[in-house]
Amino acid sequence: PFGSGKSEIAEEWHRSAIARLTSDRSAPIPVWLYARQIGHEGLEKVIADQIGLGLLRARGVAAVIDGLDEVDGARAEEIARDARILVASNSLSSALGTARPGILPPNEDDLVVEGLHENAARQLVQELSGRQHISWDWTSELVATIRRPFFALAAAALVAAGAAPKGQAELMKSLVEQALSRASAANATASENTYDALLRMSVSLTRTNGLDDGLTFHERQLAVSTRLVTPTSLGTAKFTLPVFEQWFSAQALLGSSNLLHEALASPMTFDRWRWVIAVAVLSGRAETGRHPH
């Protein structure tokens, strides 16, 4: 599930491939791809465009495909199939993809990320927050949440600031609020405009599968001024973590019956909004998409 460290594990695997190439110039070429970058021309074509078909066939690749859960289910299965074909047809190549549970049919090669052991998660929160025994009276739901490294770090940051988080939804909401409060001084008085821009951006990214942020130049500058958004090489913007995109879309969904109808209109639209709906249910908020302050 989100926050469990899938991408971090993939990054470590990618760094290991780079280290092998550094010591052995004939090693497979490390390639990092996001699932959203892979068009319908196929995985091998995308990799060949990056490193050259000759090098691909002669040396092979160590390919990471991150975010298979960020494309629709049928597309994720196509990419996974292409990856298996690539590896089967080239003994020098290997591939590692990341996805949340339920996206792809179970496979014997799956690596399930279990998260931190409970004691290790508690110790991490306590050491980073400087508050010993702070997690002893936490609910079982919150303890299960902090077993995912992302939320353990979030909980530690909040505890260090004197907060007492109660669950996943509160952790996510607090992270967003902190990031917005740290926006550039020039935009500090426009925080509501920033929040509204982030709502529009998240909805547009969800609708277009990450292709269009839906922002004007000024709105994009507002969004990038937060720690939640980063510019892309295409002149658009994206959220630094998919969970932030889904959190903002969830707030928009909770405040708009039209968006909810859009999300449930067909299996295709539901597939695109499935994580947003999950976060909205998790939030359990019936209020409209107001500024979180």
Describe the structure.
The protein is mainly alpha-helical and 293 residues long. The protein is 54% helix and 8% strand. The chain is built from 13 helices and 5 strands. The chain has helices at 6-23, 43-51, 53-59, 73-89, 118-129, 140-146, 149-160, 168-181, 191-207, 217-224, 242-254, 257-263, 267-283, and strands at 29-34, 61-66, 94-97, 229-231, 237-239. The protein has a 3-stranded parallel sheet, sandwiched between helices. The chain has a two-stranded antiparallel sheet with strand order 4-5. The two termini are 28 Å apart.
Helix content: 40-55%
Count of DSSP-assigned helices: 13
Low-confidence stretches: 285-293
Give the amount of beta strand, in percent: 5-15%
Largest sheet: 3 strands, parallel
Rounded to the nearest angstrom, the distance between the terminal CA atoms is 28 Å
Secondary-structure element string: HEHHEHEHHHHHHEEHHH
Strand order of the largest sheet: 1-2-3
Average pLDDT for all residues: 87
How many β-strands, per DSSP?
5
What is Rg?
20 Å
